[in-house]
Design a protein that fits this description.
about 140 residues; mainly beta; Metal Binding Protein, Guanine Nucleotide Exchange Factor, Chain A; three-stranded antiparallel β-sheet; 2 helices; about 10% helix; about 30% strand; globular
Length: about 140
């Protein structure tokens, strides 16, 4: 399920990432942190548009795949493009999870969960930190 990923297209040093990101963004995107539940900017957003990686600007998710999971973080049932994210095994914190990374810059986004019973086409929940995303509203 989690094959080795190709090298990130965007590669910066930690110092370069620190110049580009706020301390809070750096802690989540580059150090695999997690924002507190129900505090993120996009948890309850219903705006139509595209969600980009806050670190590199790559398109990750679309509002058409966002759903209300009531878990405290924005949830999507599928990435915008199957190659938009990379999945990696994560055994930190004494549990097994699947980490979601931006395929373009390998920044940490959150985790994906399966088989939770949500009424979505994929039976997956991409649980993504708001601070990792930037919503570009649809125009027109």
């Amino acid at each position: 399920m989690t094959a080795p990923s190709p090298r990130a297209k965007v590669q910066l040093t930690n110092d370069e990432w620190r110049q580009k990101l706020t301390p809070q963004e750096f802690a989540v995107l580059r150090q695999a942190g997690t924002e507190r539940p129900f505090t993120g900017e996009y948890t309850d957003t219903k705006t139509t548009g595209v969600y980009e990686c806050r670190a590199c600007g790559a398109e990750l998710f679309r509002s058409t795949e966002k759903f209300e999971s009531h878990c405290g973080w924005p949830s999507f049932f599928d990435p915008a493009d199957s190659d938009a994210v990379v999945l990696r095994s994560d055994d930190s914190g004494g549990m097994h999870r699947v980490e979601v990374l931006c395929a373009n810059c390998h920044s940490h986004l959150g985790h994906v969960f399966e088989g939770e019973g949500y009424p979505t086409p994929t039976d997956q929940r991409y649980c993504i930190n708001s601070i990792c995303l930037r919503l570009v509203p649809a125009t027109g």
